[in-house]
Amino acid sequence: MIVMPETELLKAVNQGERILQALEREVFSEGMKIGLSIGVAESKPEDHHLADILERADKALYQAKKGGLGRVSFYEDHQKEETEKEITFEHFVGRGEELTELRNALNNTTCGKSHFVVISGEPGVGKTRLTNELEHYSSFKNCIIIKTRCDELGADRPYLLISDPITDYLNTLPADDLTDLQNTLPAILPQTQELFNNLNLRTAPAPATDKDSILRLRMYSEISQILQWTASRQPVIFTTDNLHWISEHDFDLLAYLIRAATDLPVLFLATMRAPTESFPEIRKKLKELSGIARYKSIKLKALNEEYTRHMVLFALRDPNIPKDILQKLVKQCSGNPLYLKELLLSLRNKGAIEPAAKGGWTYQIADDMSLPDSISVLMEERLKELTDQEKEVLCAGSMMPGGSFSLEPISAVLRRDELELARTLEEPLRRGLIHERLEESSILKYQFIHDTMRTYLYQELSLGIRKALQSRFGQFYEQNQNSGDETVVPLAAHHYCDSLNSRKARHFALLAAAQTMEKGAAQEAFRWLKQYMLFDDLSKEDKGEAYKARLDLGTLYSLFGKYDEASEVLKAAETLATDDKQLADIQFQEAMMYSKRGDFSKSFNLYKSVIDLLPSGKRRIQAHIQMAHFLDLLDTETKSLDLLESILPEIHAITEDNLRKELLADYYMTLGLIAQNRRPQPENTEACLKAVVLYRELSDKLGEAKALLNTAVTLRLTSKYEQRINILNDGLKVLIQVGDTHATLVAYINLGETYHAAMQYSLARDYLERSLKLVETTGFRSASVWANYYLGLLEKQEKNYSNAKKHLTTAIDLADELGLSNMALSTRIDFAGLLLTSNEFQQADAVLTELENGEEIENADTTTKRLLLGFRGIERLNNPNINKTIALKEAEETLKTAAAIIDEVPSIQDIEILTTLAECLFHQNKKAESTEVFERAETLFQNHINSVENDHYREAILKSPITETFEDLKKLLF
Hints:
The protein is mainly α.
């Protein structure tokens, strides 16, 4: 017996359902299965003895057993008045597994491990009901619940979707707590203060830079700190309904908060309509986010037949529904809770289900009675009961984006008094077709109960009437804009673009695009530019306006990875260019596009063309720096450094301080990388660190993070593993927060390579596999070359030779395709080394011979040449298919050439070349010379070990095969 004080009957029934679901999941010994039936009864004021309640519970239990095991039944009081008999939908049925997943995510969150969960499903399947049930559970966890809801057009301003609900919660706190918040937070930007304007937070002076990306990231960081302060008090559940309608800028902020809250007790919960394929941009962003955050997707399907039956029983509170009628209802609604609800209400309104005189219900549902086959039909039935005036107002309201509307625009468009409209809406409110809510701004809004109803009403209007009404709505918002309200521009654009006024549609679409672009909302700007192109008329519109629209649209297509579309639009913009500057802007964007596609040769030529077109300025300098970078990727001659250094006087000539710093930072970062590829030395690290300092002065966190990554790259050939890892992690933390998936991917690869060099193979594999997962979402193919390359070396180290061949072959093929000749050459050399390790000497000899005779090796850097010489020496020394005497002499000559060009700071591979040379000399009876080489190798190895800061890494290297090689050589020589 379970006693639940102060618990309503339906909540007790829900708890019984949860007990049954928990029992179904329990595993008992020796295949034992245990069934359970539950009877529930509610106490009444007239009860004097416990036996009175138990008697009713016993009757309910009997009813449950009668229906079969695994059921919950409740006692129905047949003496209730007929007026009390209502159909209820408060029950929670059939989502036990999903609720358990949510509870587990919440439990982990309260332990300080943030999660992001997306619940998707068809309309009416129960997404909101599931989140409400979690909120009920969270009350036992002492959680803060912050809720927001997206609509088709988004909020009036960027980020209000996120900041408003946080502000609403903070305003409920006592004054002392708000004072603590004000004292704890550092001073924030004026732009952030505007989002939380009634919290009286301290404001910092306006920053020196006006670069949008820097300001935006700082705002994100400050909003994250406010959420962090909130979560430090209690765990937070941040719920976002209708994620499929979220705007670009709001999603960017939400994603930042999710990434920044990794170790905070914050559960981010979102609902999204299925099929998710209908919202490709959101799906792509969620996929990218899943590679970084703790992400969980819960897909709600229709309820099965058993749970649907339970829903009917609970809704009617009648365990005695005739079986044929119950089966008919279950079959008709196909497991959709919303459809079931509307169907039962429809039958109740028609009198097909009526309260019985002595309790229960009477059912007049004949076998041949036709039931509505969709929610749309049910909605249509309900709407037919309205008057023409009521439908007219609702039809006008259906044209407002987001499923909600206020009276002011409806009044202006229909030219009717607002009070008259409010009276007209009384009946739809009473019938439950809409509901009203008062917003923070004291504006009364009406919300349709379901989008299906809104869609039906919208389609009721003829095309002509719809277009005319849209023009009136556009005029209403245009008048507001003329009065100084710029927030209505997207609304004016929305309505004009669905009207017959193409001139106004073009004008406001461009205004909306420019407005959203200024706010950093690229996806929103993209949408408005696409709208503009639908009304394109070059014979009437301003040519400069048309050029700018195509340039911006092409840039955004490229940003979103739609390169064919970008190329087409940019070519169209080129035909409208009127001077060299406009042409250079187009070619600069094309160069960036081809760079993303991996066509570095074409990108290089376009940057060169930009330089030829422009005599000076920021764009010319940026093109110069990019040319030097791609020249380094495409060949190995020192002219890449010469080209880069030639632009330095132009940078110093820039008079604007922040712009000069920005370009200098780009210059030093590229200089460090190119110089590192030519000759590794400490000065290269210093160049990258100069870039770090400059980016910090500019408050450019993203630039700083990328410079940190490049700093770590300049340390690649050293034994400073811990320093490299710390630098990479510092940069990675920022990259994850800002959501730069391309740079995050590069950081993962670098961490994988560093851990591999430190012989921490499990960590190396983890980061490299993460990088390949991100390659799938970003399409950054050149990164796949490095990821597969290092995974190939890792598999070789762990003696998984077939996997190693697969990864290295993939890296070679892709490097060839992308024109990465240096990388292709290095990977082929390592592939030859793999063949040697697996004793495939004939194949290794063929690969090495081809490489030695190729043109690429002539221009290769010393590291690459040394590696090729080293593997050739190993092949000559160990190949059983050639004359040993000749092989030893050839190996000695080759290995000595390699040893002569070993750097001052040698790698483990360089030291292996020396040990191989010592062994080769020993086998030729040159013991003294062999000992001298061995001692040099041992000294270098000891210096390498001593410079490793981390004891764990040092121990791993000491246990590696090279240590065994030293021991074996010692036995031979001494």
